[in-house]
Amino acid sequence: MKICSVDMQGSDAVLCILSLSKDGLFDIHDCRQQKITIRNPDSSEDMKGFQFSFRKLLEDYNVQDVIIRERPKKGKFAGGAVGFKLESAIQLIPELNVDLVAPALIKEQIKKTPIYIDMKEAGLKKFQESAFQMGFAWLNHQDYLNNLK
To answer: Fewer Cβ close by (within 10 Å): the C or N end of the chain?
Structure first.
């Protein structure tokens, strides 16, 4: 099963498509886009365009499971309004299973299973590192691993 991990960065949804086989090997899938950007988040046409682009990309790569990093709604480290709009647009795509992942889970899983790969050698851009770490942590999460068996 493939997942798409999404990290919201301003008006960009940064993507990383990953899978984990039953023998514990990760695969980082090549993707024609590393991020989808919305030009005007106040335009309903642009929001629909973002949602269509996201849906089409995941349909083309046969991905139904999306992981998004959970962000605080208020306080010093609160997520921006545009990011929450993009998150909602993704969550409202009927064909997708969308889960929000708490930053604590990501930290805990990376502490248990450190990442020993170079992002550049893996074919990822520097701005995709957070999305990759989130997907890596989610796929290593014990509940997910139990479902693979």
So the answer is: C
